[in-house]
Design a protein that fits this description.
Elements (H helix, E strand, L loop, with lengths): L17 H4 L4 H23 L2 H18 L8 H22 L5 H6 L8 H10 L2 H14 L2 H12 L4 H8 L3 H19 L10
Helix pairs in contact: 2-3, 2-4, 3-4, 7-10, 8-10, 9-10
């Protein structure tokens, strides 16, 4: 999806029915996108503690929303947001399981992956309070069971492929995937104990 310059205030809200109109009116989906993209980007960035991955997850989330907007049956802005964040949580779950962002919907729509400049990364990290999260992440990592901490270090931090991690730890790939998935979920819960699906505080 196209990226907008990060603003310091949210744009005025669209009609609560923008998503329902989007199936036949592309401009309506643009209104929906403008209303939600910045808060969704902050939410996803705080979940994965990485601005670029947060952007990739946001882009794929909106691509899926665009493809499936004809399925939306709600009638309020709250239901619109809940529907969008349900897609975002599904993408997060896929990311936690696989260690990568799936971009199938973007590929189907022919949308290239967006690239962030250093100032944009800094701005997103500032909005998402990443400095504080990084400190909390260190503490949360230390609190993990050693097997999960080692698996996350090798797979997520060192960016090794699952087969390489399995060889390093002398376990199966399935075991590594399970450790990474459980560990990342635990980290997210500890970093965001009060998080809800509808947005970020």
């Amino acid at each position: 999806m196209p990226r907008r310059p990060l603003s310091r205030s949210q744009p005025s809200g669209p009609s609560p029915l923008a998503l329902r109109r989007a199936a036949s009116d592309p401009q309506a989906f643009g209104e929906f996108y403008e209303q939600h993209w910045q808060q969704l980007l902050i939410y996803l960035t705080r979940q994965v503690v990485d601005a670029e991955i947060g952007l990739e997850l946001m882009s794929e989330t909106f691509a899926i929303a665009l493809e499936q907007c004809g399925q939306f049956r709600g009638s309020s802005s709250g239901e619109e947001a809940g529907w969008l964040y349900a897609i975002a949580r599904s993408q997060l779950s896929r990311y936690w399981r696989s260690g990568r962002v799936e971009q199938a919907a973007l590929a189907r729509l022919g949308v290239p992956s967006a690239q962030l400049t250093d100032p944009e990364i800094d701005r997103i990290e500032h909005l998402a309070a990443m400095a504080t999260l990084s400190e909390q992440l260190d503490d949360a990592m230390e609190a993990l069971p050693p097997d999960q901490r080692d698996a996350i270090q090798l797979r997520v931090v060192d960016e090794l492929a699952y087969p390489d991690v399995a060889r390093r730890l002398d376990v199966s790939e399935q075991v590594v995937r399970a450790r990474v998935s459980r560990g990342l979920r635990t980290l997210s819960e500890r970093l965001h104990p009060d998080a809800v699906g509808g947005g970020v505080s």
